[in-house]
Amino acid sequence: MIAIVLFGKPGAGKGTQAEFLKDKYNLTHISTGDVFRYNIKNETELGKKAKEFMDHGELVPDSITIDMLKNEVKKNMDKAGFLFDGFPRTIAQAEALDAFLQSIHLEVTATIALEANDEVLVQRILERGKTSGRPDDQDEAKIRTRYEEYNEKTAPLIDYYKKQNKYHAVNGIGSIQEITERLSAVIDQF
Fold this sequence. Notes:
It is a single chain. By secondary structure, the protein is of the alpha/beta class. The protein contains nine helices and five strands. The chain is globular and about 40 Å long. Keywords: ATP-binding, Cytoplasm, Kinase, Nucleotide biosynthesis, Nucleotide-binding, Transferase. It catalyses: AMP + ATP = 2 ADP. Pathway: Purine metabolism; AMP biosynthesis via salvage pathway; AMP from ADP: step 1/1.
């Protein structure tokens, strides 16, 4: 069983690529955003707790996020592995994910970062914003703020996973098929 962490800046194509990779490798795609939406919509205990924080404009504590992810993993142990999208975002979350996976006799197999120039990504998101309906996809200042947050909080994960020899950078520019092939070349090593 493999556990792949897919990360990159907003607009790098994580969600698009995850759709192809989950089918190709029989993986469960665990998107933090999807997990949050599911739990909130279905009014699970964790969803109610998360919504309470969100309603107050606060970040949902890692403990709630991690508990949601644990539930998703446990529900999908029949697959060939997991593709984490949007998690972990911080070193603390990465350590919590490692501890959880070890408790079920798994570990992060590899972390794959989709890399692309900020200017290309800004244009991608602005284009996506024309159809996504997300206000944060239509405001260039907000997009750049998301990149600053990524650089501050998520980029340190590169060193965290490099120290474990689990970090792989993939060029995120090109056709969807070209990028899928690059990602597959990394996953096929495992």
